[in-house]
Specification:
Length: about 170
């Protein structure tokens, strides 16, 4: 009889395989995210789990970029619409939207609602660029890809420490 595997077990298996593959190559991998006209990179180790955006429970008297609360396998996650947090338009809740559970590794149930994923990126395919002076510390580090495109590197630890990000009250 074939062994049944839960979705969570399968996701943990895939995360382990990705980590092992990254370690075997001698470096980490990055996840690319498209937010409006901006391209972002997140370390897979910091990125956490990626899930399809579920129905969100709205929370009254919060900032417009706070999308609500999501129940992910019995755990509640505070969801920030990253595009709107960056000053863009709200992320449409469609088949392309994903939740990136970023806080779990850092002891926080925080999630980012992102409009689209751009796939896995290899750090060796990027060249460091000067920091963006108009960005907060969590997004100031920049890289340039082979086509000359600018990518911001998201520091999840710094984002979770940012008082503006953590203060969701209107």
């Amino acid at each position: 009889m074939a062994r049944k595997t839960s979705l969570r077990d399968f996701q943990q298996y895939l995360a382990g395989r990705l980590s092992t593959a990254a370690a075997g190559r001698g470096g980490a991998s990055w996840l690319g995210i498209g937010v409006g006209e901006e391209s972002w990179l997140i370390d897979l180790a910091d990125g956490g789990e990626i899930v399809q955006a579920p129905q969100l429970a709205p929370v009254p008297l919060t900032r417009p970029w706070f999308a609500g609360i999501a129940n992910i396998r019995g755990n509640l996650h505070a969801v920030t619409d990253f595009a709107q947090f960056r000053g863009g338009t709200p992320t449409p809740q469609n088949a392309h939207a994903r939740l990136l559970l970023v806080g779990t590794r850092h002891g926080s149930n925080a999630a980012l609602l992102v409009p689209r994923l751009l796939g896995l990126k290899k750090p060796e395919d990027f060249t460091p660029a000067p920091p963006a002076p108009d960005m907060p510390p969590w997004g100031a580090q920049c890289h340039v890809d082979a086509q000359g495109g600018l990518w911001h590197k998201l520091s999840v630890r710094d984002l979770l420490a940012d008082q503006n990000f953590m203060h969701i009250g209107a």
